[in-house]
Design brief:
It is a single chain. The chain is an alpha+beta fold and about 120 residues long. The protein has one domain (about 5-115). The chain contains four helices and four strands; from the N terminus they run ααβαβαββ. It has a four-stranded antiparallel β-sheet with strand order 1-2-4-3. The radius of gyration is 13 Å and the shape is globular.
Length: about 120
């Protein structure tokens, strides 16, 4: 899938990710574009585990990627409170094809881990 310039600008993939983290970010970004869920509402961003630790966060620090999802269209793919189970299941399946899974940590962020 070719990622649009707009999607690349809204969802930049941070430098310093592990190969698994890079795969996770790419799969998620492609998925969000395909489902037209790229509007991050100011609350969506990818973080490396190191960036997450530097913020002083305690949870998700052993992941390969952290993604915030407060207030954006993309939250339906990550936040169980939104009830869009089919979308989350499809994202879970796609990440699973790469040996990864996403875990919702709070209502505003999730972390991706190896299976």
């Amino acid at each position: 899938m070719t990622v649009s310039v707009e999607t690349e600008q809204q969802w930049p993939i941070p430098a310093g990710l592990s190969p698994q983290g890079l795969t996770a970010a790419t799969v998620i970004r492609d998925f969000l574009q395909e489902k037209e869920l790229t509007c991050h509402g100011g609350g969506g961003k990818f973080y490396t585990p190191e960036e997450w630790i530097d913020r002083g966060e305690q949870y998700g620090t052993n992941s390969v990627l952290v993604i915030t999802h407060d207030g954006g269209d993309h939250a339906v793919a990550l936040n169980w409170d939104y009830g869009a189970y089919a979308i989350r299941e499809e994202l879970t399946e796609r990440l699973g094809q790469h040996g990864l899974y996403v875990e919702q940590c709070t209502s505003w962020f999730s972390a991706v881990y190896p299976v």
